[in-house]
Amino acid sequence: MNKEDVCLILAGGPETGSPFLPLPEYAYAICADSGLQLADRLGIKPDWVLGDFDSLGEVPKHLPHMIAPVEKDDTDTMLAVRCALEKGYRDIRIYGAFGGRLDHTFANFQVLEFICQHEGTGMLCGVHDCAYMLKSGGVLHLPKRNNTTLSLFSWSEQCEDVCIRGVHYPLEQGILKRSFPLGVSNEITAEQAEIICGKGLLLVICSSL
Fold it and tell me: What is the C-alpha separation between 30 and 159, in angstroms, rounded?
């Protein structure tokens, strides 16, 4: 992996444990406002820091930074994603994405959709959870982890031709609907699970027990 391949975004989620997944090596690192505190805790030197800095409480003048207005349409995380996309990154991994306010968490799921719409692949990572979004034709492989559940949700009105393989409850060419939580709490039983979304937007969440 080269630094040109992956963009790591550090958001301001308040969780204090170790991340659910290891940090990518050699990634270009952007801190969104108080995500700088997470970077400090994880020993990461950011390449860029941006936001309105209302959460951090100060402007990090010792680092490359951009100050955004407090009153804006984008959340600081969305602002960081736009920056990553403008720099050409399409593999975007957001850490510190959970554990705080529910509206912020929901907004981060919308950020995943935004990344999909811009021909990228996104991931949200916290201490206990990790989330991905697949668009039509998308394929995702996830390794087996002990004491971890795998849940699938239709983010669009419905997802069609959904396949889930290597799990306790497999599915072939299935339909998931946004109005019914059919795909909750599965378990990866093989060395890795394969998840395919034929049509729609599929939200995939791994959670530790």
Answer: 32
Residue 25: is its pLDDT beyond 70? yes
What is the structure's pLDDT at 73? 73
- Residue-wise pLDDT for 42-52, tens only, equals 998 999 888 77
At residue 57, the pLDDT reads 64
Residue with tokens 């239709």: 154
The amino acid present at 4, given as its one-letter code, is E
Cα 34 from chain centre: 17
- C-beta neighbour count of 117 within 10 angstroms: 10
3-state secondary structure the chain: CCCCCEEEEECCCCCCCCCCCCCCCCCEEEEECCHHHHHHHHCCCCCEEEECCCCCCCCCCCCCEEECCCCCCCCHHHHHHHHHHHCCCCEEEEECCCCCCHHHHHHHHHHHHHHHHCCCEEEEECCCEEEEEECCCEEEEEECCCCEEEEEEECCCEEEEEEEECECCCEEEEEEECCCCCEEEECECCCEEEEEECECCEEEEEEEC
Q: Give me Rg for the CA atoms of the chain.
A: 17
Nearest to 202 by CA among 191, 13, 171: 171
pLDDT of residue 13: 78
Q: Residue 26 pLDDT more than 70? A: yes
